[in-house]
């Protein structure tokens, strides 16, 4: 019988570090290989059942393999999956996005969150004719050079840059502030050479970190004062914290929004959305280049439409948010050591050894080893939370009362051992 250990040995012969994305190697002594998933459950190649709170790192807000999405994908597969021409599906998905995301008038589809933020930054530079961008310590915006500066979950240490291979010339075009620090933003923008400020309105790749009351409002005011564009990276929060994203929750509307994950229903996708006069700077109507053979791929469009159709019914948010709230409330009761839990909608994360988390520097003070021990013990009991302190625990519309009760039973068992 094929098992994860045998597959891991083979993978190490074929892939750098045995994986195709680094966090997958964080499960020790080797990652488990998944055969299938349904609802809130994934099954390893050995047949082990795991309650999944990773959910593909966020996209699967309906859970694994929902029938409504699968049916639409099968229907599209019968018609074809790549044409190199426009399809009606891309119009339908763009209409849904622009109807729900308040700041979105026009959309450009790409293939990942990384592509979305990369092109959003290029667009901001082309629109403003400025060269610099400003980002925040611990905010993760994908894997391209301009955002791999102090980039949260991509980094193992606090460093500039996060990756080898980034030219010093690029580093010089990126300014960095601490999340929730408006004084720093003001001092950087005063020079009036910053094309855009890119921010996760809710940090999701350093755990979950919420904006302080006036932070997003202050960013909006400062960017207007100094004629910089405000870019919300809602790849994680878009269609998850609400159907209108974080910008609807906080009623702060950026110039450009980047989207991904949920709008593809679990298939590869990204999007840049914003004011029409800004988005129109993309080729062919403008001079900011973007192209892609797989842009607006019919399968991703179909899956995204099907997913948003379910979200429009409201029940996925009711179930997912209720599940997260119930788990967080019980964890607050049973965890007796010093800790904090940051939580919003269907996203939360546990930080041990700290009283408050408001930025990435605070996250670095948390006891990562304690968190990883929790991950290992839960995995033994059949519950899968992210194998990294710097990721987010997600719930979905498939995390019903039975799943939550089973999860809490296992949390209690594990935490009694951990404490």
From TrEMBL:
Keywords attached to this entry: Cytoplasm, Isomerase, Porphyrin biosynthesis, Pyridoxal phosphate
Q: What is its subcellular localisation?
A: Cytoplasm
Q: Name one GO biological process term.
A: protoporphyrinogen IX biosynthetic process
GO MF entries = glutamate-1-semialdehyde 2,1-aminomutase activity; pyridoxal phosphate binding; transaminase activity
From which domain of life does this come? Archaea
Cytoplasm found in the keyword field: yes
> What PANTHER family is this protein classified in?
GLUTAMATE-1-SEMIALDEHYDE 2,1-AMINOMUTASE, GLUTAMATE-1-SEMIALDEHYDE 2,1-AMINOMUTASE 1, CHLOROPLASTIC-RELATED
Matching entries from NCBIfam families are given as: hemL (TIGR00713), PRK00062.1 (NF000818)
What is the designated name of this protein? Glutamate-1-semialdehyde 2,1-aminomutase
Source organism of the structure: Saccharolobus caldissimus
Lineage, highest ranks first: Archaea, Thermoproteota, Thermoprotei, Sulfolobales, Sulfolobaceae
């Amino acid at each position: 019988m094929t098992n994860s250990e045998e597959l891991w040995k083979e993978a190490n012969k074929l892939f750098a570090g045995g994986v195709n994305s680094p966090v997958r190697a964080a499960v020790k002594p080797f990652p488990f290989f998944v055969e299938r998933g349904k609802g809130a459950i994934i099954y390893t190649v050995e047949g082990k059942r795991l309650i999944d709170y990773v959910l593909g790192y966020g996209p699967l807000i309906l859970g694994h393999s929902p029938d409504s999405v699968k049916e639409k994908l099968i229907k599209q597969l019968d018609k074809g999956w790549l044409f190199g021409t426009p399809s009606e599906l891309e119009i339908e998905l763009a209409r849904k996005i622009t109807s729900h995301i308040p700041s979105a008038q026009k959309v450009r589809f790409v293939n990942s969150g990384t592509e979305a933020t990369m092109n959003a930054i290029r667009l901001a530079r082309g629109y403003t004719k400025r060269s610099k961008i400003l980002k925040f310590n611990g905010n993760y915006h994908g894997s391209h050079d301009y955002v791999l500066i102090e980039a949260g979950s991509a980094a193992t240490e606090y460093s500039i840059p996060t990756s080898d291979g980034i030219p010093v010339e690029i580093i010089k075009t990126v300014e960095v502030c601490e999340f929730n620090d408006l004084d720093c933003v003001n001092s950087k923008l005063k020079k009036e050479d910053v094309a855009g400020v890119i921010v996760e309105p809710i940090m999701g790749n350093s755990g979950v970190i919420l904006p302080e009351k006036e932070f997003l409002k202050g960013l909006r005011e400062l960017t207007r004062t100094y004629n910089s564009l405000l870019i919300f990276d809602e790849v994680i929060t878009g269609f998850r914290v609400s159907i209108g994203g974080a910008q609807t929750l906080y009623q702060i509307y950026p110039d450009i929004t980047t989207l991904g994950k949920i709008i593809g229903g679990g298939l590869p996708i990204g999007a840049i959305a914003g004011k029409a006069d800004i988005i129109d700077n993309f080729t062919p109507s403008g001079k900011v280049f973007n192209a892609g053979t797989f842009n607006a791929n019919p399968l991703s469009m179909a899956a995204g439409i099907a997913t948003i159709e379910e979200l429009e019914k409201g029940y996925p948010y009711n179930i997912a948010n209720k599940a997260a709230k119930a788990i967080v409330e019980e964890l607050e009761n049973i965890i007796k050591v010093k800790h904090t839990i940051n939580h919003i909608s269907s996203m939360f994360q546990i930080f041990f050894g700290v009283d408050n988390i408001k930025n990435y520097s605070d996250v670095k003070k948390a006891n990562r080893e304690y968190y990883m021990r929790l991950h290992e013990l839960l995995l033994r009991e059949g519950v899968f939370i992210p194998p990294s302190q710097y990721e987010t625990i997600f719930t979905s519309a498939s995390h019903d009362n039975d799943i939550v009760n089973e999860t809490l039973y296992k949390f209690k068992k594990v935490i009694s051992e951990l404490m």
